[in-house]
Amino acid sequence: MGRITRSSASATRVQHKYAVLALLYVLSCLFPMQSLAHQQKTSVTRILFNHNTGNIEVMHRFFIHDAEHAAGVVFGASQNLMESAVSRELFSNYVMNRFAVAAEDELGVSEELELTYVGEEIDGQFLWVYQETSQRPNVKALSVVSLALRDVWPDQANLVNVERDGEIHSMSFSDSVESLRIEF
Known about the structure:
alpha+beta; Alpha-Beta Plaits; 2 domains; four-stranded antiparallel β-sheet; 27% helix; 40% strand
């Protein structure tokens, strides 16, 4: 057997480095590394009957990465929601135009709620959009439309949780579901 010298060991290490780099290049071509920028395609909205304020509060939560990607698709230009208040407000308007709630009273009379924009904020990896309206007497059911991001991704799922009197009612918007109703 031949003796391994320092220069042949060094050459072997260089060859291994090039082999590893070549393998990484081939793998990146076959399987693009999109996992670092993977969309979650899920949002959560909370509708809270807040007896302390007398309001119905609506809180929409989106992954910031999904919101930025969708805003770029919807508005045709890249949006930096982390740094731009104008971009966040633009996205908030988009969300509000794709969300609606109607309250039904004990007689079956339904009225669409006029939700007022309260604001938005970034919290870690999430963008929150806030709306509210005053509570209506004798609400027996809610009908909700939740379409945000569903025009961008057909597999987008929007979960809406309604909290009232210590109970939570959940609605899941996916596939072709555009409107759901819950009764209290």
